[in-house]
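Case study 2.
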Amino acid sequence: MAKYLISFPSKAMVVPEGELEAVGRAARAVIDEAKAAGVYVFAGGIDEAVPPALVAADGRVAAGGYPWAPTLDGGFTVLELLSREQAVAWAARIAKACRCDQELRVFGFDPRS
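Prediction:
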């Protein structure tokens, strides 16, 4: 089994006014289905009210992330699945619930982690 990251950046989720609550219910329903199926690892969104910090090996902390990297925001779901085909199917369900396309990535396997 592999762990898959299904995610979207904040700007991708454009929901008409008055429909955000329905989107939230639909997204939570898919997460509940993933939990019931035993494939759920975790899900959530980046708290954009809290700015990122860049922490060096010596413990120094600088405001912000890598200046050259794209902003990391939006929503994330991690599922543990048997195949990429299953991951695509779950990503499609999440895309339908959130009303925006989802990016799909697989975590590399490290047997010691």
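The helical segments are 20-37, 84-98.
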